[in-house]
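Sync notes, pocket subgroup
Present: LS, DG
LS reminded everyone that the earlier model was apo-only. Rerun requested with iron/sulfur cluster included. Inputs:
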Amino acid sequence: MRWSERQRAMLREIGIPPFWPEGPTTETDRPAPPATEGAAPTPASAQAPVVTPVPVRPAVPPPASSPAQGRPASARAAGGLSRATPPEVGLGARPAGIDTMDWATLREAVAGCRACSLCESRRQTVFGVGNPAADWMIVGEAPGEQEDREGEPFVGRAGQLLDRMLHALDLTRAEAAPARQVFIANVLKCRPPANRNPQPQEVSQCEPYLLRQMALVQPKVILAMGRFAVQSLLKTSEPIGKLRGRVHMVQGVPVVVTYHPAYLLRNPADKALAWADLCLAREVRAAAG
Ligand code: SF4
């Protein structure tokens, strides 16, 4: 992979030190990225990506860990969890026929959804933004306070970092052609109170909306960001460090996993790993034609 001066400038902007040699180089020229504490990072490779198919059904969400009341949104992404008792989750009926809804009907269904008790505390649902026919889909976890207020995923400092990461790949959430404008959505469309961790029942209730969004967008690659997004999409409890560096398949769409921007704000050393993940996703997108 060759690095343009613009890309180098973008890497500096998102805080990745230019630790590899200046001038044209390749992924394999670069030194191995630093290890992640408490995880098992997989070095990115320029070799043909390993593809791991993931069964979509049954929709068994990952075992959600205990809530952490009062933590900021960024703490959820860190995976540092308390051992408190899980909150009670009330469940309601989900609208019928989600898997055949068009965009307008799906948006309306989400806006009025009361299928789990998160509807009681949300200001508004956060449906998702971007190009409905985007080549790239970004999947995050759940709205935080600012997202709940503004009705858009990935806002605030984490959103700004995501925008810079996208910019480094010549992608944007602003209006553009499907090749450049991504579609961004969360696993959960409503904010968990005090940004506590999503509960398995909540993920299970909300998941059909995301799956329908994926089916409507038909992206060529999905970038899953953060532990809950990754684990719920891939139906696994493995940490991101063990899942990154290879390509997974969900509903026939290649999925590349990486860290949540909120986590990267607290762990800037791992931005280099995230950049390697973005490069892998770009290879996957390019290979899709
Ligand atoms: S989180 Fe999802 S399932 Fe629960 S009320 Fe909101 S939209 Fe419905």
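DG: Residues 18-49, 54-75, 77-83 have pLDDT under 50 and may be disordered.
LS: The pocket of iron/sulfur cluster is lined by residues 110, 113-116, 118-119, 125, 188-190, 202, 205-206 (CB under 6 Å).
Action: DG to write up.
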